[in-house]
Structures are given as C-alpha cells and as structure tokens.
Amino acid sequence: MSKPDLNLLVQLDVLLAEGSVARAAERLRLSPSAMSRALARLREVTGDPLLVRAGRGLVPTPRALELRERVGQLVDDAEAVLRPVDMLELSRLVRTFTLRTSEGFVENFGPDLLRRITSEAPGVSLRFLPKPNKESTALRDGSVDLETGVIGASTGPEVRTQALFRDRFIGAVSKEHPLSQGPVTTASYAGGRHVLVSRRGLDRGPIDDALETLGLARQIVITVGGFSSALALARGSDLIASVPERHTGNLRAGMYSFALPVPVPEVTVSMLWHPRLDADPAHRWLRGCVREVCLEQLADH
Questions:
Q1: Kindly report the CA angle at 157 between 156 and 160, in degrees rounded to 5?
Q2: 258 forms bridges with which residues in the sheet?
Q3: Please, are residues 256 and 174 in contact by the beta-carbon 8 Å criterion?
Q4: Residues 6+ away with beta carbon under 8 Å from 301
Q5: 3-state SS class at 108
Q6: Which in 33, 107, 185, 268 has the greatest CB count within 10 A?
Q7: What is the pLDDT of residues 83-136, one digit of tens each?
Q8: What are 218-239's pLDDT values in tens digits?
C-alpha cells in the first residue's frame, strides 16, 4: 500500500477554509488547474466529493465538515513541528492578544495584568471581549486567544484548561439595607427582594435550589444578564444581589457584603485556550502572567 501524499492535507485544509478552488489556488500560489487536480486527487483518496456545486459556488459535504477541524489541527501541528523555536524577546514582542472574560475579571484583575504586561513587553496590547456564553467557537476559529470562566458542558473537548482560583457566592446590599445592620439569617435573606443574574434569562438558579431544600423561596423582582448590572440595582435600592466574591471585589466598593446563609457550591474559574497555541512561546508567557496575577491578588486577601 502506497503512502499518502501529505501535501494533500495542506491543500485540503485551504480548500475547506476557502470553499473555492480559485481562492484556494490564489492562497497557495497555484494555478486554478493545479488546484482542480488536487481536489480531484483528494476526492479519489477520501472517496468523497468533499465540495459540491450549489448555484455558482461550492458547499462542503458532511464528510468535509467532519474533516475540517481535524485537518486544520493536523496542519497546525505539522507547522509547529517544522517551525524553528526562537528565544522569546519580550522587549521586542509586538502582538495583540484577545481575551474573552467573565464579567468582573477586567475590573478586578485587569489593572495588575496590564501593569505586568507593560513592564515586561511594552509592545503587547490586550483586547478584552465580553463572554456571553461558554461555547468554544471563538477559540477554535482564532478570533480569541484566551478565555477565563467556569468550564461548562458546551466547552469544546479539545480545549486546554488550567484552574486559576475558586470563587464563592456572597450577598451584597446597600449600606442602608436592613441586612447590613446585623447577622443575616436564612429567613431574613429569603424574605428580601432579590435581583437574579442569568445570561440565559432563567427564572431561578442554584441559590433557589438550596433554599427549596430548606422549604424556603425568595422573591425575584428583576433578572439581569450581568453582575455589574445586579450590583448597580442593589446599590440604589432595597434589592439583594448574590454575586461571586472574587470577580466583584471592586464592583462592590461602598456596599455591604455578607456570606450567604445557604450552602451554595463554589465555582472554579479557569483559563481556556485552543491546543494550536499550546506551544506558542508568547502565548505561554501570557498564560503565565494571567496565572501569577491571579495568585498574587488572592495571596493579598
């Protein structure tokens, strides 16, 4: 049995990414006829048409969609093997890293991270994006370099993760709220008016499950999509906001915070990245900075 031509992997990767023989040929600096011959060979070795005509364009077959992610990773790995490893000169590094983070991360860890980055690599810029969900599409397509958050069921199985810290939920109210005047009991907490944080618009959460086991229920008068919105509402009203402690330290300035009187599981906040960046020296350095900044801040508390 003859060995397959591994050059076909590169051509397949570009064809599936471009969805066009002409654009793939231009990207690989081949003639359109050479690219057409490569597609014909790929169809022969895979036993699948891969790209089929739909109107004036081409669309991928189910087999092509199945192969797209695997082929892309194989090509990335091969390029990493053949790429010379240079010593990372942070003082000369010019790069923009895009980070997608849970709400509160920038407010609490951003200033220290920026100081660390600026002192070691002044040519590096950071771009922070909000995290509306836990899907890994942005990591896969390269539009995001690094994420922070709680790992969920929709997190891609190939994504690399590393735990940063544990966080617990606490209550926060205005300084004039009755709960700020004495010990917070289960009854007094459940008897208040609450703001619920739910990015998906749900009408209950783990706190409600914990209260239900005690035969209690809380009155949720408003639901918002983020912790900063919940805290802003609680700051100016009689509402109770239940938020993660570490993520909202700076956001709760001037408010009264208290431990929840019901048992709610802690969460593990991790950083997540795609395997294609695992061995990248600059990305490894960035991950180290994020990890150390989080550890240093936690040690100060």
A1: 85
A2: 171
A3: yes
A4: none
A5: helix
A6: 107
A7: 655 578 899 999 999 999 987 889 889 999 999 999 999 999 999 998 877 788
A8: 999 999 988 999 999 999 999 9
CB 116 within 8 A of CB 87: no
Task: Judge whether 103 and 167 are in contact, CB under 8 Å.
Answer: no
125 Cβ neighbours under 8 A, 6+ residues apart: 95, 96, 97
Whether residue 244 has pLDDT greater than 60: yes
**Among 243, 225, 231, 248, which Cα is nearest to 105's?**
248
Which residue from 167, 168, 169, 191 is spatially nearest to 179, judged by alpha carbons?
A: 191
Query: Judging by DSSP bridges, how do beta strands 239-244 and 193-197 pair with one another?
Result: parallel
Question: What b/e string do you get for 211-231 counting C-beta neighbours within 10 Å, with b at 16 or more?
Answer: beeeeeebebeebbebbbbbb
Phi, psi values for residue 63, rounded to 5°: -65, -40
Q: What are the C-alpha distances in Å from 140 to residues 71, 116, 179, 253, 274?
A: 13, 27, 45, 37, 6
Residue 167: HSE in the Cβ half-sphere, 13 Å Cα cutoff: 24
pTM: 0.66
Cα angle value 79/83/87 (rounded, 5°): 140
Beta carbons of 230 and 195 less than 8 angstroms apart: yes
Closest by CA to 277, choosing from 73, 113, 10, is 73
Name the one residue in this structure whose structure tokens are 């700051």: 235
Q: How many other CB atoms are found less than 10 A from the CB of residue 187?
A: 11
Reported in sequence order, the residue ranges of 61-218 that DSSP labels E, i.e. its strands, are 95-101, 124-130, 146-149, 160-167, 169-173, 193-197
